[in-house]
Input
Amino acid sequence: MTANTASRLAPDHADGARQSDIGDRVGRLGVEIADVAGLIADLSVISQQQELQAEAARNAAGEMNAAAGQLGQSMTTTRAAAADMRAILQQSTAAVSGAVTRTADTMATLSDGAMSIKTTLDGVSGTIRNVEAASAAIAQIARETKLLALNASVEAARAGEAGRGFAIIANAVKGLADQIHGFSSQTSDNLAQLSQALGALGVQAGGNAEAAQQAMADSGAAAEASATLAELVGSVDRLVSDIDAMARPVEQSVAGFETMQGELSALADGVAAGRGHLAQAETRTQSILSISEEFMLFLVESGFETADAGFIDLARAKADEISELFSTAVARGQISMADLFDEAYREIPGSDPRQLMARFTAFTDRVLPDVQEPVLGFDKRIAFCAAVDRNGYLPTHNAIYSQPQGDDPVWNAANCRNRRMFNDRTGLSAGRSTRPFLLQTYRRDMGGGQFALMKDCSAPITVNGRHWGGLRVAYRV
Output
């Protein structure tokens, strides 16, 4: 817009002042709208995080609810199993205790009988010994009687006829003695056999007595085992009681988790609904911001003076200078149109944040600094001046932002901004706008949760009538 046109639109000083005031107000309105849009964008990001967190909390509550339900089912199953085990142990303990008691009584009776038999056998053995002694005495008497009868027979023979009767008696006595001796020998043999049998029986009776005593000891151990079983039943009783005590809080937890899951589900639904509203608000604020940018363009083209006029003129002049510079380079064969409009970006290995190369990057590194660097001295509010292509790719930045990358990605993000893709709303709009200029207001992230309101004035760059991108001049509000 020429000065003559501006004078026609502002015929007197008062009208010019009003037009300047309108321009300033539109500029401030754009700043406020950009600030609100930034705040809504921040809220949208926070809401999105909250939505994810609420959804995660709802999922976690669902998992905890399911786990609590499984725990409750396990508690119920365990409680039933413990109760069954208690009943079985009680029955088994009663049966074992009865069997042990009966066995102990039987063993006691057997032990007493075995000991009695052993005692009786000991007495019989003594009697047999007495009989053996008596039998031996009888045998001795029989031998002596037989000897006397023999002597009597000899004397009777000497006496002749007179001793004949005496001889008969002597022969009778001798026969009786022989019979007694034979009976005594037989009795001795029988007593020896009887003693041998009784000895073996006595050994067996002793073994039976020892076995009965061991059985009595074993029945005592069995009784102790029965007592241990009874203690185990008591432990199972306490276990069942403890499980019952634990089951009630678990059941309460299950109910509490179900309630919490319902509340978290409602919260997640509410956050999602709020997220939807914020998304709509963000879309509308961006539309309003675009309208304010178009309104600013309309005012400037209509000849209204604004506080941004100097930056607008600067951006347009430098964009035209770059357009001429690129066109001349193509005409001289310094770079081809195909290379200048290359979009096959190649990532620089190991770069963080990611840096890219295009076939025109080396060319812009040679020719753009002489155009862009002097712009930083135009006004102390200017933060940077850089050209971007239609995709928001910024090949050559100001020297202050073109440091070699290091190991710290945070430092790199602030100091190594060349060869980067800035395809956010501001960067992409600046690269693709074909209007005479585009004045955008946005919030620049300064790190640490701090933001600075910035204005970005851009103008299109064309090469031989083909739109290449735009020159961005960013300055603080």
